[in-house]
Amino acid sequence: MIVGTGADMAITTLDLANPEQASAADAFVRARPDGTPFHLTAWLSAIHRATGHKPLLLAAVVPSGKISGLLPLHHLKSRLFGSAMISTAFAVDGGILADDPRAAASLAAAAQQMARERGGIPVELRGGAAPGETWERREGEHLGFVRPIATDDEAELLAIPRKHRAELRKALANSSLTAKVGRDAEFLRAHYRIYAESVRNLGTPVFPRALFRSVLEAFGDDADILLVLDGDRPVSAVLTLYHAGRVMPYWGGGLAVARQLRSNELMYYRLMAHGRARGMSHFDFGRSKANSGQAAWKKSFGFEPHPLGYYCWSPDGAARDISPNNPKYQRRIDLWKKLPLPIANLIGPPIARGLG
């Protein structure tokens, strides 16, 4: 469907069910240094299957048929948090990819048009090229953490600051702690148990179980799960994506005992080695809220933060605010931490589905 035209460029929505169009979009993403897993059709389709949020893939196409820009979107609908168009849902990136500012501006204008047609809902772009002057830029609320993977295990250990290295050495000396990597149902079940308890302890509703399964299936060998076990018991787990030489631990956590065992430290150290064995060159520790404990923990692991830029637009100027730092959510977060885990796991996924 053509949603905008010009003398030398058309903005169209690509059909994800069309193999030729999906392949062309993925090739464009993979050819760019700023492309991420969250721009790929695998991510768009996985989120749709798991949550029902409709994917929309806008493309800037020149007369030759060549793609010169992409903007992947999900139309998210939530009774609790409102509707929005997000690039992309459940992602930390996924904003505009474009060969030039004109293509970026055209894609942004097309997204605004589609948002108006859908009832005047806000649009959120997570990263990517600047969409234009009418958009609000939010920078510094979130931080990213990336550094090269060291040449071997010993060099990796020495790359970690001394205080945190000492904690990791305690885990390495614990012979009851082991790590294994896989993708089957056993790994998914263990990951979900650990992740659900971990986010409950942080006061956050857990995502639907189907989300993790859908992403793992969609990315094939470019995704897996690493477990750390204390004897036979899984105590830490992380679902990781691999893209363009980057190891991207995405959904990870540990049980309450993980802090005492230092199993989370061991988990990421073993993941670095696993990534090196896969031929990866960089470890992308993902995003964290600025001034958060999580951000401080990553910095203590030897990662320097860099600010992430997000963009928001709304016809009425009122963007969604689902930040856990919003004072109106603090009491709810405190209450959520006290919920019995079975109840949190029952009522959490329908709520988390709307967060996007």
From TrEMBL:
InterPro entries: Acyl_CoA_acyltransferase, BioF2-like_GNAT_dom, PEP-CTERM_FemAB-rel, PG_Glycine_Bridge_Synth
Alphabetized SUPFAM superfamilies for the sequence: Acyl-CoA N-acyltransferases (Nat)
One matching Pfam family: Acetyltransf_6
Superkingdom in the source lineage: Bacteria
Domain named BioF2-like acetyltransferase: residues: 163-299
NCBIfam families tied to this protein: pepcterm_femAB (TIGR03019)
Database matches in PANTHER family: LIPID II:GLYCINE GLYCYLTRANSFERASE
The protein, known as: FemAB family XrtA/PEP-CTERM system-associated protein
Species in which this protein is naturally found: Sphingobium olei
